[in-house]
Automatic annotation (TrEMBL):
InterPro entries in UniProt: UPF0145_dom_sf, UPF0145_YbjQ-like
Organism: Streptomyces pluripotens
Pfam family, one: YbjQ_1
HAMAP family: UPF0145
Name of this chain's protein: UPF0145 protein LK07_14940
Superkingdom assignment: Bacteria
Family classification: Belongs to the UPF0145 family.
Length: 121
């Protein structure tokens, strides 16, 4: 996966199509398999917390934390796709991320959506 300046990038082609929409043009939903999710919790190390605290006083992007969050979101999405694939899905509709603080020690990222079997129309 190539990284852009923010630490993200294009995901490699997958056998599971993940979209934020309720449907996919040119496809019909053949079967709904139910909710799938990928969850990960990441803690921040002391150095990044101190650096983030200092940076927040003077302003600007927290590049180290941005990179960590992108990696965390990618891991959650990979787990979502693996769960969908294991259930026999070739698509995930209504894909979303949810982010929350986890017991003041880190960040919880959950990728979730509806696993479906898609067929070309």
């Amino acid at each position: 996966m190539g990284l852009d300046e923010y630490g993200g990038g294009q995901e490699p082609a997958s056998d599971v199509l993940v979209v934020t929409t309720n449907d996919v043009p040119g496809y019909r939903v053949q079967e709904v398999l139910g909710e799938v999710f990928g969850l990960t919790v990441r803690s921040r190390h002391l150095g990044s917390q101190i650096g983030a605290g200092l940076k927040s006083m003077i302003g600007g992007e927290l590049k180290g934390l941005t990179k960590t969050l992108v990696q965390t979101r990618n891991q959650a999405m990979e787990r979502l796709v693996a769960q969908a694939r294991a259930r026999g899905a070739n698509g995930v509709l209504m894909f979303r991320f949810d982010v929350a603080e986890a017991a003041d020690v880190g960040t919880e990222v959950c990728a979730y959506g509806t696993a479906v079997v898609l067929a070309r129309e």
